[in-house]
Amino acid sequence: MCGIWASINAPDAVAGLQAAAHRGPDGEGWARFDTPAGCLELGHRRLAIYDPTPASDQPASYADGRYTLIFNGALYNYRELREELKALGHIFRTTGDTEVFLAAFAEWGRDCFARIDGMFAAVFYDAKRQALTIARDRFGEKPLHSLEFGNGGFGFASEIPQLFAASDTNPVVDHNTLSVFLTSGGIGDRGFFQNVRLHPAAHVVEFDLSQKAVAFPQPQPFWTPPSSQPMSEDEAVNALRQAMDLAVSRQLVADVPVGGCLSGGLDSTVILGTAARLRKGKSNPFVCVSAIFDERDDGGQSLSERPYVEAAIAGQNLDLVEVHPAENDVAERMDDILKAQGEPFPGTSICAQYFVFEAARKAGIKVMLDGQGADELFAGYAPMAGYALADRLAKLDPSFFNEFNALIAEPSDLTSASLSRSIWRSLVSEPFRRQVLMAIGRFPPTGGPVAPIIDPPFRIQPGKTRLETLVETLAVTSSLPGLLRYEDRNSMAFAVETRLPFLSQAMGDLALQIPGELKVKNGFTKHILRKAFEDRLPPEIAWRRKKLGFVTPQQRWMRGRVGGWVDQHLENSIEAFRPILNADWIEVERSRKKSGQAPGETAFRVACAGRWAELTGARL
Q1: Are 187 and 205 in contact (CB under 8 A)?
Q2: Number of structural domains the chain divides into
Q3: Given 146, 262, 280, 600, which residue has the most CB atoms within 10 angstroms?
Q4: How far is C-alpha 467 from the geometric centre of its chain's CA atoms?
Q5: What residues make up the domain containing 483?
Q6: In a shared domain, residues 287 and 341
Q7: Percent of the chain having pLDDT more than 70?
Q8: pLDDT tens sequence across 414-458
Q9: Dihedral sign computed on CA atoms, order 52, 134, 228, 190
């Protein structure tokens, strides 16, 4: 992973790359080309993971200088691709993935992107054709943003602050994204800046630099999510075990130390259990980092994952690094975390993740495996169970009632009411639900910070069930993109590369192909994932019914210093966003603050967004 910069006629390209110096502490490189469209500048800040020698520095060239490449990411199957390309006559002088990427592009053109098992935001320049090709990996693990400059030029960068550092463009807040965030905390695949584009995942675009005037072409997909395939449970189990072994074995390859994030949940334990199994016989332990909070929430429920973390590492050749972020740590470093993120975030779990990657770097770990993507791809979120049941009900499946009762049986994250609401939402159209809510006086909703946000209607995709449609939506559009953003910014703040086995080529495709009825079954979400790895996991983790997720003691923190930070910045935030905030909400918050009550989640989001705007100079 690295920081990249590509631009035509940028006012200050050097400043643009320097703003990403934290992403690549191991080297800096530049390539410049005069084209009819103007001065093309390609910059790279290196985080050396494969072949840390200068031979693999970027920008890198190939075929006597015809092709030049900068990219952020890693090609996990570069060794297999190298052998395939060698058979086609290509000769290699390095041992890393950069030269393989160049050779693959020279051989297959834009078709090479679909062959890659990995993560990347890549920029290729073909000097012979004077063409600039830009692509981003399947799920968008690696970020890539663009901005058009006032002089007709444009820039692409790993992080948004790079684009503003290189130009005199003023940051303008996207009203819709901000309103959605303030209401629900969601960000999806949109950005917070009106004038900044986020290059779509799994898409490639080519710019013709042989002309003076350069337009932004429409990006074209090189991969589309596959539909589900008929598959028995045994077939799915065998395929998942093979795919996970392949994903983890490839992602363990590096010329620097590799470790992992461990939460005590199913996803991270599957990955680390697989890593331990594949590393059997190695003397050096695999280092895991875990954020542990030995506290209880306001309802008395323990927030500690310690028993599950200890069960996960028992008997394994693993070393555990514990992180215990306190409210003072969070309050004192909120500005640092906001600067690292570059955009607002909805809660303190993002702060805890920040401290996890800081601890990894201090422990000398430069690559970390993590479990992002599993909840979206395998129906791990509790509301997804309702969509699975709605599919059964729509088919008049007699197993509906048994499955309903099994899902709400204690202990469970679901109740009869919450499961019924999910079924209702998935079966009944948005306009009809709105009419019903209006008739009983519950629409439009009141009390929110901004005018009510109307969710886009849920439409079942052709050839897919409700659950399968939701899985793809969450993985591609509404949930996973935001989580990937948080993870990339937090890890790269400390120059740590994160790798996500569940989003590998094999696992990602297979997860989308597994039928929905295998994902929610016998009273369990993620049923097929549990079944596939039950013999590799402690039973208390494999078949755990209640999950905490990556939580912090935010309720208590909001009564202490974190809440103090919120109230410190709330008034300025209200003034910054007054044009879109509801006057009634403002008065309620001011009264709450005056009475000494602790702020809530909405106040946190408003204060976080306001402080972010203050730090970046963004305005409505």
Answers
A1: no
A2: 4
A3: 262
A4: 21
A5: 233-377+479-542
A6: yes
A7: 99
A8: 999 999 999 999 998 877 777 877 788 777 777 889 987 777 778
A9: positive
